[in-house]
From TrEMBL:
CDD domains: BKR_SDR_c
Pfam family, one: adh_short
PROSITE patterns: ADH_SHORT
Biological-process GO terms, alphabetical: monocarboxylic acid metabolic process; poly-hydroxybutyrate biosynthetic process
Family the entry assigns: Belongs to the short-chain dehydrogenases/reductases (SDR) family.
Taxonomic classification: Bacteria, Pseudomonadati, Pseudomonadota, Alphaproteobacteria, Kordiimonadales
Keyword Oxidoreductase found: yes
Domain Ketoreductase: 3-178
Entries under NCBIfam families matching the protein: AcAcCoA_reduct, PRK12824.1, PRK12826.1-2
Organism: Eilatimonas milleporae
Domain of life: Bacteria
Keyword terms of this UniProt record: Oxidoreductase
Name of protein: 3-oxoacyl-[acyl-carrier-protein] reductase
Amino acid sequence: MARVALVTGGTRGIGAAICKHLKDDGYSVVANYAGNVEKAEAFSQETGIPAYRFDVSDYDACQEQVAAIEEAVGPVDVLVNNAGITRDGTLMKMSHERWQDVLDTNLGSCFNMAHAVFPGMKDRKFGRIINIGSINGQAGQYGQANYAAAKSGIHGFTKALAQEGARYGITVNAVAPGYVDTDMVAAVPEDVLAKIVARIPVGRLGKAGDIARGVAFLAADTADFITGSTMSINGGQHMY
Ligand code: NDP
């Protein structure tokens, strides 16, 4: 039986590349998305990967939808917490709503989804949880106090959960992308982006496939000695 992989925010950008890569590797893949039905339908049609619409910041929806996915496809072996949003602004211009939305969607979602799959993984003595962090969670970023806090939180969450999962064969790792050419980065003004690219030693933006390769590596059965780690995939922009 193929292992089942669930990728949140899997219908476009980095998530879509992760879904396609895992499918090519032989996984039975399920994607989630928030509300962009047109993109999701086009994605499912192109790939044959089912897409479930629910809000990963909603705890109850996550529990219900993961149960429905497991009923339809089988127990989730690999969870990729990829869904994320930005709501940028300097602190003085950042509303409480923008702060909370970003924390709930990027970080709260990791708890919500892990809570839904962890008991089953524990019973089956196998699991892979891969959380998508960010270079901006490692280094901070002007105008992104909410996003940097959420992504930095993901890195702490990963290390704590890795310690809880290890004895049950569950590994928990993070992947921290640098700037990747997706809709999210298309929102960055051109002049700002040019300055960012000038600081990337390999001289280009990342591609979604660059991140997908890292995720697939950590998802493999053979990656069982790697847990609590953060894989930085950023063209050398931030090293530590
Ligand atoms: P995109 O904006 O291209 O895609 C985001 C995906 O997440 C979409 O499928 C979207 O669904 C889904 N999503 C958003 N909010 C929710 C929600 N509340 N519930 C369920 N799904 C949701 O993002 P990227 O591909 O660029 O980014 C993917 C991840 O990588 C994010 O966590 C991001 O923070 C991180 N990252 C990205 C970087 C980059 O340079 N692009 C750099 C570092 C990290 P829908 O289509 O329905 O809106």
